[in-house]
Amino acid sequence: MSASSASNINTSIFILAGFPGLEQYYPWFSIPFSLIYAVVFLGNCLVLHVVHTEPSLHEPMFYFLAMLALTDLFMGLSTVYTVLGTMWGLIQEIGLDACISQSYFVHGLSFMESGVLLAMAFDRFIAICSPLRYTSILTNSRIIYFMVTILTRSSLSILPVIRLKFFPYCRPHILSHSFCLHQDLLRLACSDIRFNSFYALALVICTLLLDAVLILISYVFILHTVLAIASRKERLKALETCVSHLCAVLVFYVPIIGLTMVHRFGKHRSPLVHVLMGNIYILFPPMMNPVIYSVKTQQIRSRMKNWFSLKL
To answer: Which residues, other chains included, contact 222 with Cβ-Cβ below 8 Å and sequence gap of 6+?
Structure first.
C-alpha cells in the first residue's frame, strides 16, 4: 500500500461535494437557499408561537403539529451550516465526528417526523371514526406517551451511525451532498458493512414503511366512515380536517422515497441528481409544512391574521 493510500485511509476529513461543476454559480444559488432556510426557521417558529399562545389550539392535533414544527426546525438547524457554508465558500471539508453527528440528526429527525405524522393520522382517525371517545382516548398522559415513544424510536438510528466511527475509509473522501448521510459515508468505507446495511434497511422497513402502511390503513377507515355520512356538506367538512395532514404526508414521503431510489438504483445518474434529491429531502418538508398548516388550518390562519393585524 502506498504512503498516499495509507494517508487517505487514516484521514478523518471529508469533502462536501455541493453542486459539482457549478461552483461558479454558488453566490446565486445561495440566495434561494438562504430564503428557503429563512422560511424554515421563521415559519416553524411562528407555528410554535401560535400553538403556544392560542388557548383554543391546546388540543392533541396541535400538540402533534408543534412537535412536527420542532422536528422541522431542528432539521434545518442541523444542516444549515454545511449547506450554506459550502455555497458561501466558508466550508469545504468536514471532520468525521461532525459528519457522524450531522448524519445522526438527519436520520433521527426523519424517523421522528414519520412518527409524528403517524400520530397525527391516529388523531384524525379517532376524531372522525370515534368522535364521542376522542377526549377519553387522547388524554394528555397518552399524548406524552406517544411523544416519548416517538423520541425513543428515533434514537434507534444511532447504533449504525456510531459504528461509522470505527470504519476505515480508503475510497476518495468525497461526499455526494453538502451534508452527511449514513449511506453516503457507508459507500466510502472499506470494511464489513453488512450490519450497517441490514440494520439500516430493517430500521427503514420497521419505521418509515410501517408508518406509511398504518397511515394508509387509517385513511381507508376514515374514508369508509366519511362515505357513510348522509350529508354531503358534513362529508366535505370531515375531509377538510384531513387535507393538511395528507399534504404533510405527501411532502415528507415523496422526497424520501425519491432519495432512496436514487441511492439504490441511480448510481450511474449525474451527481447533480443526487445533490438535488438530497436537498429536496432535507428542505422541502420543513419549508412546506408551516405553509400548508397556515393556509389549510382555519384556527392557525385566523390566529396569524389577528396577530399580524395587531403588529401593523
So the answer is: 124, 125, 128, 129, 242
Instruction: Read off the pLDDT band of 170 (50, 70, 90).
Output: confident
The upper half-sphere exposure of residue 129, i.e. CA atoms within 13 Å in the direction of its Cβ, equals 16
Rounded to whole angstroms, how far apart are CA atoms 116 and 66?
A: 10
Q: How far apart are the first and last CA of the chain?
A: 69
Percentage of the chain beyond pLDDT 70 is 92
CA 251 to each of CA 104, 137, 168, 206: distance values in angstroms, whole numbers, following the listed order? 21, 28, 36, 20
Q: What is the CB-side half-sphere exposure of residue 22 using CA atoms within 13 A?
A: 16
Q: Residue 311 above 80 pLDDT?
A: no
> H or E stretch including 75?
helix 60-87
**C-alpha span between 74 and 110 (Å, rounded):** 11
Q: What is the DSSP letter of 95?
A: E
Give this prediction's pTM.
Answer: 0.89
